Amino acid sequence: MNLADQVAAVQRSVLTHGEVHDVVLARTFAVAPGEVWLACSTPERLALWFEPVEGDLHEGGRYRLPGSSTEGTVERCETGAAVDVTWEHGGGTSRVAVRIGAEGDHAVLSLTHSVPDDDHWRTYGPAATGAGWDGALLALDLLLAGTPRSPEAEPFDATPEGHEAVGLWTDAWAAAHVAAGADPDQARAAAERTAAFYRGEL
Predict the structure, then answer these.
(1) 3-198 belongs to which CATH class?
(2) Taking 90 as the threshold, does the pLDDT of residue 153 lie above it?
(3) Which long-range contacts (CB under 8 A, 24 or more apart) does 82-87 make?
């Protein structure tokens, strides 16, 4: 696996409207859109690259991620194309929107995580949210390519390769933050704090 290629495969952007920041990732996968939809919408497939999911995965239903103490409501579900959920974690609520489309024979996945402008954002910036989703998209790519990480393997974040990936992801998010108008020094400092958190240094 070439980490630099994996990082470059994701388009990252940061959009701000009012008191909300949109952390946006988009990636093309060399499979049909239907395969990506199945990976994103069925508990058995989600557990292979994201984490186990419980609950009612239909519009209006409630879901739970026991591993991360996250839960929420499925606000929109259009088969094969779109999912919107609330993301309720640590006493706060944000929103995640996933869109799946096609570019020729390949699937294009776009994910937007809308987060509030709060102390967490000012401390860690978009990398705190973005790097986590970067890791998920990497795991999804490995699954779709037929080379998923073994459930018995050491957690990726704990490996030297994982530490390298965190550095590349957070650097990329600092660049996206600057492109969105953030002060370069503040953007880099926030990304460095995020990298230290992911590496267990804080």
Answers:
(1) alpha beta
(2) no
(3) 83/40, 83/41, 87/113
